[in-house]
Sequence to fold (409 residues):
Amino acid sequence: MLSVTFLSLPRVLAQTGGQRHDPAGADQTAAISTSGFDALTGQEPQAQTTPTPPPTIWQYGGFVDAAYLLDFNHPANDLFRSRGTTYKLDQPLINLAAAYLQKNASESSPWGMQLTVQAGQDTRVFGFSATAPDLPGSAGLRHLGPTNFSYRAPAGNGLTIQGGIFSSLIGYDSLYAKDNFSYTRPWGADFTPYLMLGINASYPFTNRLTVTAYVVNGYWHLANANSVPSWGAQVSYKATSHTTLKQTVLIGPHQSNTSPEFWRYLSDSIAEWKSDRFTTAFEYHVGTEDVAALGGPRALWMAAQLPLHWVLGKHWSATERPEVFWDRNGRLTGFIQTVKANTITLEYRRPCRQFTGIVRFEHRIDDSRGPQGGFFRGPFLPSGEVALTPTQSLLGLAVILTFDSQAQP
Fold:
């Protein structure tokens, strides 16, 4: 017989291999009585208690994410320049919609899996590369979110191995806006992977220290720069009950020339402090690679953000997020520029049984400076291009509806 329990959506996605939900399965015990007679004591034997393993939990659900982002520059091409998510402006859009089925690997049930199908405007750009060809089959793969198998090996504290498409180990923000504090993502998130294609292995040395190693097909999971995999590792340390530190590195080639001198190196550092009513984090990442083109310089880029999130009441919260992205050679954004941005978000969140409704009002201002910087503004020019201006101001309204539940066979 199948029993079903309804859940509300967790507040923030944990960026650890795509494990988006972590329900606590309560242990159960069953008393088994024997019916024989003890000839020595002349008494019935006492009932004995035998523990049974926790039940297997299957989680399933989905969401629809729609928004209208008003650009006060009103560009004729309706584009947010240099972006991979929420890049279409001045029109209502379903940016993402997804459905998922998931079973977490555990000690009592070591095999796990995730299946996520997705569609929407944002699936058209993220995960691809501006400097490398597309991966064969990417037209279909872009409609898959975290989709993988996992196994928890009975080694020490439990070694979990996961293979397939999984949530990126790099970055503070999720591909899915419902799991973030703000609706639009920071620049650093759009130019690091949201998803990875490959295999990872995670081991908790203590309840505070977890180390993860991974091998992936490349920097962007839908790009085919070459046939040499990239690799990396993450160390996550819970310093106190409020403070978590993460350090992640990624190394490997993202050019057709795979000589080690042309490999890409990325470091991502995150410090988060979280209490019941306030969360803040600082993220800094730096990347570099020597461009193989004749006479090409060593490319360098850096990004930093400082989100500040307040819980104002039972249903209301507010977030401010200052950030900066520096692309010295235009290797990531496609343009030599330094972007400074600030985003302010007001959120109303209302759960109702297995559903959660999220409404976000958001304003962000971006300022791009440099020889190739700027944002689109105004009508098409006679050349067919759209003029550029250093500053862009957006005012957005987003509505997200989620459904999350679980079933126990």
